[in-house]
Amino acid sequence: MTGTFADSIENRFDPSTPASADPLLASELVTEIEFLAARAVSIGTARANSMLAPLDLKVRSYSVLALACTAEAPSQRELADFLCLVPSQIVAIVDALEQRGLVERIGDRNDRRSKAIRATASGKKLYKNASRAVREAEASSLEALTVDECDQLRGLLRRIAFTPAG
Amino acid sequence: MTGTFADSIENRFDPSTPASADPLLASELVTEIEFLAARAVSIGTARANSMLAPLDLKVRSYSVLALACTAEAPSQRELADFLCLVPSQIVAIVDALEQRGLVERIGDRNDRRSKAIRATASGKKLYKNASRAVREAEASSLEALTVDECDQLRGLLRRIAFTPAG
DNA sequence: TATTGTTATACTCTATAACTATA
DNA sequence: TATAGTTATAGAGTATAACAATA
User: Fold this and answer.
1) Number of domains in chain B
2) CA dist A151 to A43, B106, B116, B160, Å?
3) How far does A89 lie from chain B, in Å, by closest CA?
């Protein structure tokens, strides 16, 4: 996710064809929250990925690392549910992080099927830097908003991201 | 995108493990707008896709169809830029829609390289139904918000989705 | 019987480069 | 030279089913 996204964004916002003049902005599609959110996410994810690239992380692996840094190390099943990923994807991501010594799998004594994923010291250290990189990418994506507006947006998104099925 | 998403959402929000009790909600990750938006979009896209399935559309093809319904039929390049997709992807999507007689490629007389994508009568008819389906999916995803809050959210997202690079 | 993690596999999505025809 | 569309291909991401170990 390096080139094309950024490229199309560049093209899209080329000064010679300002967004505000684009007739497509009059489309019904632009009134759909789903579309706007998807576009914002795809731009934001591309930025975050490119900021994370020097650390050899992507948003996916970064997210797993972040959750592995919490006090109560989550099981792989919990990671899958929380990140809306299939369990087999978690296996691959955790494998990669574990091979780099960033997280470790800890057998659960009560349920020996389950394995808790916990960040190592080195994983926590990397997470600190990664977190900073992601915040930086986010700040650049949210440049158009005031701090208060960011708080509003966070509150609204949090509610729809964690609301039981309609 | 049929099973796993819905399934993990079901698991995630199973009454026996309410979201509000999940220790992962205390993670720093949950304070990131990027993460919240990505989660909301992935849930919302799954819903929209399943609502569109009976019409043999997905959010991608639906979006192209929607833009093809605008007064000034966009070129494939404009579609690619607007939807943050690579031109070759647009080709595939337009091919599929064209084969179903939903859109047509119209050569531009001024620039014979360019082709405008315009919805046919049948395409416009399908779009009406598809649009209703998507609105329904959206309403279900946004159930937790009031109408005013939806307007707020739309306004904020629109600004970050269409802001020149930071 | 059901669930956790795992493997293997297939499928979809996305990206890249090379080509053509126009400009 | 540069751009619009196209093709072919490769790579990443995602989904499915089946299995072993455990509950």
Assistant:
1) 1
2) 20, 46, 41, 14
3) 12
Distance CA B52, CA B55 (A): 5
Q: What is the DSSP string of A80-115?
A: HHHHT--HHHHHHHHHHHHHTTSEEEEE-SS-TT-E
Residue owning tokens 């994807």: A89
Is A13 a member of any domain?
yes
Contacts of A8 in chain B (CB under 8 A): 80-81, 84-86
> Is the pLDDT assigned to residue B49 strictly greater than 60?
yes
Residue with tokens 């830097």: A129
- Residue A157 falls within a domain, yes or no? no
3-state secondary structure of A106: strand
- Tell me the backbone φ, ψ of residue A106, rounded to 5 degrees: -120, 120
> Residue type at A29?
L
Q: Which residues span the domain enclosing A75?
A: 3-135
pLDDT tens per residue, range A139-162? 999 999 999 999 999 999 999 999
For residue A152 the two structure tokens come to 């509003």
CATH number at residue A115: 1.10.10.10
Report which secondary-structure segment, H or E, holds A139.
Answer: helix A121-141
Q: Does the CB of B10 sit below 7 A from strand D?
A: no
Task: Tell whether A91 is covered by a domain.
Answer: yes
Residue A77's pLDDT band (cuts 50, 70, 90): very high
Q: Residue A134: what residue type?
A: V
Question: Does residue B158 lie in a domain region?
Answer: no
Q: Which two tokens stand for residue B12?
A: 């995630």
Strand ranges (E), chain A: 103-107, 115-119
Q: How far is the CA of A93 from the CAs of A59, A102, A104, A161, B23, in angstroms?
A: 11, 11, 12, 23, 21
Q: How far is B46 from chain A (nearest CA, A)?
A: 11
Of B59, B141, B166, nearest to A160 by CB-CB distance is B141
State chain B's mean pLDDT as an integer. Answer: 88
Q: Mean pLDDT across the stretch B7-30?
A: 58
Can you say whether residue A56 is alpha, beta or left, with left for phi > 0 and alpha for psi between -120 and 50 degrees? left
Over residues B77-116, the pLDDT tens digits come to 999 999 999 999 999 999 999 999 999 999 999 999 999 9
